[in-house]
Specification:
alpha+beta; 14 helices; 631 residues; 23 strands
Length: 631
């Protein structure tokens, strides 16, 4: 029982370990699946971000390139060169203004065209509206020497185009409303082109470009554009735009999202997750072709970000999918673990039952072994009892046979003794010759009769001695089969007479065996007894025939047949089984034929065939070895 408890404890421990492993596997699988599935879903948005970022940069770079090219076209136009020729006398401004007006009609993105002298004074300015170009009066012209783009443009080389940062268009110190995102392109004149020295400046209104960029946004992605200092030019929240120009310095990425701003500063292009949004960004020089001092003068940052809350939704969806998967794994694993535990438990119970049955079988085996030993002892006792019974029958038969010759001899001796007493009296009374002759004749006859009876007794005694010695001797002997059968029948003669059974023999006297005469005699006696007890049941005697033939040099065929009632066919297969008998009530043990079969097979090295027909008798065919070799 303690072993069973230990086994159950070990089973529970193993099941708990498997369950722990299953949970760990489910968690690891869930985490791995979550990361892979989340990354897979993010890949979709990253692809959209890359495409959107590419489109935005293409639009923007195309617009900047267009602006630069227009500036070059204007500078090298014939009308401008004629107006700004340094050798020209008189007022050049009307001709220059006229060329600006005509030029402004080329595109809608130009908001102003100006020419500034070396001191930063606007000499000519044309404002472009929906109705066309308007030349600004002299009173409205301004000095721009304090503006950053004037100072930066003065540093460029001949035929280079300076592209300013993007900011709001400012007039008289205030941003123009509605806000106009503006970029300025400037080229120097009067370097080596024989023109008046100064700066040609064009303002481009980027409102259409910004509108096009915003139109690229999707339901899941926002476009943001930052200047080099981190101020928004385009933002999902429009209130954050133009913080630098409007003096709202807190509207800066460094303030709102320091982690993202550090990434922007350290890498030119990358993606990351910050503030629960997926960001894709790229640094873009506002004028990649205009370089001096070995570096870009001004850069912009394009950012493509997922809508706020979108990553949370993706995480929730992914987590739900993974949770279903994890629960499925746990459920299936739990069911499998339950089945395994149940199978192991059944195996443990079966093992316990098997151990219990093994113990019971062991006890039953020991009990059967003891019973078999007792049975063997009982069987040996029965065999010995049967031998003694047979020997007793032989003794009784021989004693009965000896009684007749013994009585005859005794009577002869007694008669002679009486005749001798009479002779003595006659001698005392004068014995006559006739009386002496009569005595002598009478004595001779009596002694002859006594001798005859004594010889018969001697023969019976020798027969009995051979039979008795054969039954008790278990060594191999050479003997004549006919003599053995004759000695056996002498011992059975009284029983045969009593049951009116006649035995006929047909055995060649030349059949000599080297075998066990005691076992063969016992076999024949049991078969004769079986015929008397069972074969002639319900009959007043019968006939038994014993015959023998020599099959070859190694085998003898013995036939013991009777003309009795025969054997029921349903019982023939059981006839040699131990303790099987149809005469239990008559005191039969059922060992006779069983012992016959064993003795023939084990000692006589032969076998038995049974032929029996109901109402026609039974024949036992014994095939035994003629010579049994010693081991």
């Amino acid at each position: 029982m303690r072993s069973s408890s230990l086994s159950r404890a070990a089973l529970r421990l193993r099941t708990a370990a498997l369950a722990t492993g299953l949970v760990a596997l489910a968690l690891v699988s869930a985490r791995f699946t979550y990361l892979e599935l989340f990354a897979l879903r993010l890949n979709h948005f990253e692809s959209e971000q890359n495409q959107l970022l590419t489109n935005a940069i293409v639009f923007f770079s195309g617009e900047i390139g267009y602006s630069r090219n227009l500036t070059k076209v204007l500078k090298h136009s014939e009308a401008l060169e004629e107006a700004l020729t340094s050798s020209q006398q008189g007022d050049f401004r009307p001709a220059l203004a006229e060329s600006f007006v005509r030029f402004a009609r080329v595109t809608e993105v130009i908001s102003q065209v100006r020419w500034l002298d070396p001191e930063g004074n606007e000499q000519v300015r044309v404002n472009v509206t929906a109705n066309g170009g308007k030349v600004v009066s002299d009173e409205e012209l301004q000095n721009k020497s304090g503006r950053y783009y004037f100072e930066e443009a003065r540093k460029i080389q001949a035929n280079e185009v300076y592209v300013s940062p993007i900011d709001l268009n400012v007039e008289h110190g205030q941003p123009v409303r509605p806000y106009q995102p503006t970029i300025r392109t400037l080229m120097r004149t009067g370097t080596d082109d024989r023109l008046r020295p100064g700066l040609l400046a064009i303002n481009f209104d980027l409102t259409p470009l910004f509108s096009r960029l915003r139109a690229l946004q999707t339901d899941s992605l926002d476009i943001e554009l930052l200047d080099q200092q981190g101020f928004w030019l385009i933002a999902a929240d429009s209130s954050k735009q133009w913080g630098r120009d409007l003096g709202r310095l807190q509207n800066n990425l460094e303030f709102f999202n320091p982690e993202l701003w550090r990434q922007l500063q350290s890498r030119g292009a990358d993606s990351l997750i910050a503030r629960d949004r997926l960001w894709r960004y790229q640094r873009f020089p506002i004028d990649a072709l205009q370089t001096w001092d070995g570096k870009d003068k001004e850069s912009l940052y394009f950012l493509i970000a997922t809508k706020p809350g979108l990553l949370g939704e993706i995480r929730q969806q992914t987590l739900s999918s993974v949770a279903v998967l994890g629960l499925g794994i746990l459920l299936l694993g739990g069911l499998a673990l339950r089945q395994l535990y149940a199978a192991d438990l059944r195996g443990l119970r079966l093992n316990q039952i098997l151990q219990r049955e093994k113990q019971e079988l062991k006890e039953a085996y020991e009990s059967l072994h003891q019973a078999l030993q007792r049975q063997q002892l009982l069987q040996n006792e029965l065999v010995e009892s049967r031998k003694l019974s047979s020997l007793g029958m032989m003794v009784a038969g021989v004693a009965h046979e000896l009684n007749t010759p013994n009585g005859g001899a005794l009577m002869s001796v007694t008669s002679v003794h009486q005749a001798l007493s009479t002779l003595g009296q006659q001698v005392r009374q004068r014995l006559s010759k006739n009386e002496l002759q009569h005595f002598m004749d009478y004595s001779e006859q009596g002694l002859a009769l006594a001798e005859k009876n004594l010889n018969r007794m001697s023969k019976l005694i020798h027969s009995f001695k051979r039979l008795a010695v054969d039954r008790t001797d278990e060594d191999l002997h050479e003997f004549a089969l006919a003599q053995l059968v004759e000695d056996l029948l002498i011992s059975l003669k009284p029983k045969l007479k009593k049951t009116a059974t006649k035995v006929e023999t047909d055995i060649d006297a030349q059949i000599i065996l080297i075998s066990y005469p005691g076992y063969l005699s016992q076999v024949l006696q049991n078969l004769i007894d079986n015929a008397i007890s069972h074969g002639f049941s319900g009959q007043s005697g019968g006939n038994i025939r014993i015959s023998a033939t020599q099959q070859n040099n190694s085998e003898v065929h013995l036939r013991i047949s009777d003309d009795g009632v025969g054997i029921d066919p349903q019982k023939i297969d059981k006839i040699f089984d131990p303790f099987f008998t149809t005469g239990r009530q008559a005191g039969h043990s059922g060992l006779g034929l069983h012992l016959v079969n064993q003795w023939v097979g084990q000692f006589l090295q032969g076998y038995i065939k049974l032929d029996s027909t109901v109402s026609q008798g039974t024949t036992f065919n014994l095939y035994i070895a003629k010579v049994i070799a010693k081991d």
